[in-house]
């Protein structure tokens, strides 16, 4: 990959720079030059081997590659991944929605049968119904508590366009949780209705981040 090639190139340049600096030092020592001149000459010979144009050259090249990938409707989060992605001829994945549209979907709710007894064997999985792809209405009561938390403890937002269409904004994970939670409560209108209740007023919030891997809403 590009990172490995650059690492090998940097190591090669480092060896050359050290060798040139050592030779320059020996020359000045043989000439019995003053200590200040020897250090200055050796340092100049050493640091002049550093390719200052390497970083901007690689960055600009990757930017051009990213622009070409955008024309093919491919978005890359990390610019250094463009080189690896450009070498791929066959790409196999089962997460087509996440990759092509940036969308995710909640498939199951895992709820606790007895809130006073939280254990692995006390958990039950409520999947979507086959065919309708909706959560079963007869199990909505079991999912109501966790769905309420999914709506209130969520950074995603639901907006309505002028043409009446729904616009879900936020990270794909939070949008997926918000959509699934709203389905349990009867539809998208439940999001606004729950957040509008006085007892659900948001007082304090710590947003989700990849380091903590948790989110807090009071």
Report on the structure:
With 218 residues, this protein is mainly alpha-helical. The chain contains 8 helices and 6 strands; from the N terminus they run αααααββαββααββ. The protein has helices at 2-30, 35-47, 54-71, 81-86, 96-100, 140-152, 172-184, 189-196; strands spanning 108-112, 123-127, 157-160, 166-169, 205-206, 216-217. The strands form 3 sheets. The chain has a two-stranded antiparallel ribbon with strand order 1-2. A two-stranded antiparallel ribbon has the order 3-4. It has a two-stranded antiparallel sheet with strand order 5-6. A hairpin with a 5-residue loop joins strand 3 (157-160) and strand 4. Helix 1 (2-30) packs antiparallel against helix 2 (35-47). The mean pLDDT is 80.
Describe the structure using short key phrases:
single chain, 218 residues, mainly alpha, two-stranded antiparallel sheet, 8 helices, 10% strand
Radius of gyration from the CA trace?
A: 29 Å
Strand order of the largest sheet: 1-2
What's the number of helices?
8
Shape: elongated
Measured distance between first and last alpha carbons:
46 Å
Order of helical and strand elements: HHHHHEEHEEHHEE
Strand content: 5-15%
Share of residues in helices: 40-55%
Are there runs of 5+ residues with pLDDT below 50, and where?
A: none
Query: How many strands appear in the DSSP assignment?
Result: 6
Q: What integer is the average pLDDT?
A: 80
Main structural class: mainly alpha
Sheet with the most strands, sense and barrel status: 2 strands, antiparallel
């Amino acid at each position: 990959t590009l990172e490995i090639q650059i690492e090998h190139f940097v190591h090669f340049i480092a060896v050359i720079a050290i060798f040139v600096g050592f030779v320059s030092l020996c020359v000045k020592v043989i000439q019995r030059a003053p200590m200040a001149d020897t250090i200055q000459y050796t340092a100049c010979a050493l640091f002049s081997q550093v390719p200052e144009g390497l970083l901007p050259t690689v960055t600009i090249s990757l930017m051009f590659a990213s622009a070409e990938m955008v024309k093919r409707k491919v978005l890359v989060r990390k610019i250094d991944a463009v080189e690896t992605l450009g070498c791929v001829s066959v790409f196999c994945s089962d997460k087509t929605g996440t990759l092509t549209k940036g969308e995710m979907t909640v498939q199951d709710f895992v709820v606790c049968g007895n809130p006073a007894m939280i254990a692995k064997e006390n958990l039950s999985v409520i999947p979507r119904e086959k065919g309708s792809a909706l959560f079963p209405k007869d199990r909505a009561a079991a999912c109501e508590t966790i769905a309420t938390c999914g709506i209130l403890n969520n950074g995603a937002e639901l907006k309505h366009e002028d043409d009446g269409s729904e616009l879900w904004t936020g990270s794909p994970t939070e949008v997926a949780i918000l959509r699934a939670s709203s389905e349990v409560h009867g539809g998208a209108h439940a999001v606004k209705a729950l957040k509008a209740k006085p007892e659900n007023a948001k007082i304090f919030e710590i947003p989700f981040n990849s380091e903590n891997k948790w989110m807090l809403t009071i």
